[in-house]
């Protein structure tokens, strides 16, 4: 988890929580996701941000959608060509 602390004597704040609350992030649920026991809290914040609505909601990419439409790398293209031959 990443934390920010504006001044040394102030309480630290979780960056993930701040971004979810603002609607600038989504909860990553794929393999290898680490939530430090705060998954329920993060899902609640994500749901609240979605209820608040956003004008650009339909154009925002979610991680799994981005991975599905991204262009294959040069190495992946070379491997595909080798398999076709």
UniProtKB/TrEMBL annotation:
UniProt-listed InterPro entries: SNase_OB-fold_sf
Region of interest called Disordered, as start-end residue ranges on this chain: 65-85
Basic and acidic residues bias (residue ranges): 74-85
Protein name: SPOSA6832_03520-mRNA-1:cds
Native organism taxonomy: Eukaryota, Fungi, Dikarya, Basidiomycota, Pucciniomycotina
Name of the gene: SPOSA6832_03520
């Amino acid at each position: 988890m990443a934390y920010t602390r504006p001044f040394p004597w102030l309480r630290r704040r979780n960056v993930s929580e701040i971004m979810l609350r603002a609607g600038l992030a989504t909860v990553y649920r794929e393999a290898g996701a680490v939530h430090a026991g705060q998954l329920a809290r993060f899902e609640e914040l994500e749901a609240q941000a979605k209820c608040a609505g956003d004008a650009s909601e339909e154009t925002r990419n979610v991680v799994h959608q981005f991975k599905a439409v991204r262009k294959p790398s040069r190495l992946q293209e070379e491997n595909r060509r080798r398999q076709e031959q």
